[in-house]
Design a protein that fits this description.
Layout lengths: L2 E4 L8 H8 L4 E5 L13 H14 L4 E4 L11 H20 L4 E4 L9 H17 L7 E5 L12 H13 L5 E5 H6 L7 H14 L5 E6 L1 E2 L10 E2 L8 H9 L8 E3 L8 H15 L5
Parallel strand pairs: 1-2, 1-10, 2-3, 3-4, 4-5, 5-6, 6-7, 7-10
Antiparallel strand pairs: 8-9
Bound molecules: zinc ion (2 copies).
Amino acid sequence: MPLGVHTSIAGGISNSIDRIEDLGCDAMQIFSRNPRSWTLRPIPRNEIDLFRAKRRKAAIWPVAVHTTYLINLCSSDPAIFDRSVSLFKAEIGTAEDLGADYLVTHLGSPLGMGADFALERIGRALKEVCESNLGKKAMILLENTSGSGFGFGSSLKDVGRIMDNAALLGLEIGFCFDTCHAFAAGYRMSSESEVAALLETVDREAGLKRLKLIHLNDSKGGLNSKLDRHEHIGEGKIGLDGFKALIANPVIRRTPLILETPKKSEKDDPRNLRTVRKIMEAWGKPA
Ligand SMILES: [Zn+2]
Ligand SMILES: [Zn+2]
């Protein structure tokens, strides 16, 4: 069960590998650019080469890149939609240049236009990706959302439908399950029996074989609160028993875990990693 964190690229993208090694992790996630900017500034070739070389040496798997927050693949505004698809394609290109395994993306918001509209838009975006011959080297992973505002993708059924549609285009994509978002969207996971039922639901609605990554985050908001606020593992509304049950479950034995827990001090990542590793050790899982 590879374990890692979302880490910073401050000072150059290859520095993220050093941070991951310092934390003793074997998996990682990064933004490849400022997540709140539309600006496309290409990463210099030598930085990309350095990232790839360090990553190989550190034997990190998987490397996931998370797209910027501005991308809205189901916008009803044609200009924003076009801009989003362009940036999305650029993000996939960068992820592939970096040799990343996965590109994690949110789905955006159709702003009250409904699920069918959103599905049609996202299908169109993925068709463009396909036609540009992108998304083959780095697999696109759709992330479930908390359902705040009009955000699309809080239902795993919708995530499953998008993956089905992509498969029809000949594009194999998967999904990333964020525990905080799912809990905030109404999926229970605070005990062994709830986690067992959850994994059955995940399988039925989206297909466990397409689950490639788990964002392991506790939740500040309660069940079905629609609140996207991450909390330290075991200190939120999901609670430690939920994480114990999740990590212990043999169904997701090999699914990589990425922490996106709050970082107020340098001690926060090591502390959350310690909590997860302790649970893994209890279950005889190598961390
Ligand atoms: Zn995300
Ligand atoms: Zn997440």
